[in-house]
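User: Predict AKP13 protein's structure from this.
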Amino acid sequence: GDSVITVQLSEEDKVEDDVVFYLVFTGSTVQHCTSTRRINPGSLETISPGHDCCETVKVALCASREGHPVLVVAEESFQFVQDEAYDAAQFLATCAGNQQALNFTRFLDRSRPPAADVDFLDEKVALAFRHLKLPAEWNVLGADQSLSENIPRETLMHFAVRLGLLRLTWFLLQQPGGRGALSIHNNEGATPVSLALERGYQKLHQLLTEEGAREPDSWSTLSHTVHSGDYSVKHHRGLGVYLLTAEA
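Assistant:
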């Protein structure tokens, strides 16, 4: 989700300015409707919805005009695929609290990718995490909430801070157990806060320690979502488009 979709209109579809185009995505359990913005007489732009599973859905381009019935202009299939970022987010979400898996992730620290790759990874994995359907009882510290804060262990927060993933760290901070993870020491005696300081991640350290620290800039910060029961409405301020999602 959250990538830009461009719609190219054919000559006969280039109509008056009072016609409003929107896209309807119909999946197996969820339906999305997105408004569009007109780039020029022949092109429209919108944001792809974050879908609940990887599948091929039907997408319809619809045209609406006051006083006229809604017209389906074109239909096409659209595929939501499972990419590496989705796999990574799913793996991390599943291994929260799993010491063997979290210790395994530390090998990434020995082959640090370039800063530009880290930034790209951070954006994509944090976005994938936002689209995961996490269980209601999911916690950054894992399923076993009886463990004392004094027991040394690796956490998802250590992982995110060690790699300098600002946006993923912010996301985890908002989740149950996120703030609690900040005071947990790993087997080397490091907390996520001391790791950020030790590695010179100044922005990350501020994010973890300053009260009222703001969310890092990202594609997702351009979006504001309101949930209501089985519905959600998302406004993407960057493009000025709206997205309505409803469970079918």
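The beta strands are 4-8, 20-26, 30-35, 37-40, 43-47, 56-64, 71-79, 223-228, 231-236, 241-247.
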